Fold:
Amino acid sequence: MVTLEGIVIDADEAVLECQNTDDVIKIGVSARHVHLCRKDLYTLFGKGYELHKKKELMGGQFAAEECVTIVSPELRAIEKVRILGPLRNESQVEISRTDTFKLKNSPPVRPSGQLDGAAPMAIVGPKGSIFLDECCIIANRHIHLPTYLAEKYGLKDNDFVDVEVETGKPTRFFDVQVRVNDSFTPEMHIDTDDANACSLKTGDAIKIITER
Ligand SMILES: [Zn+2]
Structure:
C-alpha cells in the first residue's frame, strides 16, 4: 500500500472494510480491482484453483490474497491489482480515471455488472492470461442501503440522490445511484479519485440530500 498523507493509490488499500451497522452512512473507498468468473480464474491460476480470503468486505464479498496484472490494448500495464471474491458470472475490471492516464484507455462510467460497451483489457495471472473485449469500467458512485433505511429515506433500488460531504474540501455529489438490499449495510462506495478529490476516507460519514 502506498499512502501519501492519506492519498489512496494502491490496491492493498482495497475496498470497503465492513462498517458498523447503525444508520450512519459511511464511505467505503474502492481501489482498482478485478472480479473473475470461474473459467477465467482457472485460466489465470490453474484448473481447480480457489481464491484465498484476505479480508471480509461488505455483503459477503472479500478481498482475495490473489492479484493479477492488467494490460491495456496500448500495452500499458498495472501490476498487483487485487481480486475480489466471490466469483461472478462475468469477469470485470474496475479502475479509476487516474488509472486511465497510465493505461491510455477510456472505459465508461458504469454501475458494476453493466459491461455493454465496456473497454477491452488483458488480464495476466501466474498460470495464463486472457483478453476480454468488454470488461473494464470506471464504477459509478453508489450507495448501498438496507431496505429499512431506504424506506426511512423514501428511496427504492435504482433511485438517484445527491450526497453532501463535509470535509476540509466540502463537496456535493449529484445523481448517486441507490442500491437497496436486505443484506447491505449502509455504505457509499466511491473510487480513489473521488475520495482524494474531497479528502474522504473509508469510514467517513456522508449525508443523503433527497431534495435539491
Ligand atoms: Zn458497492
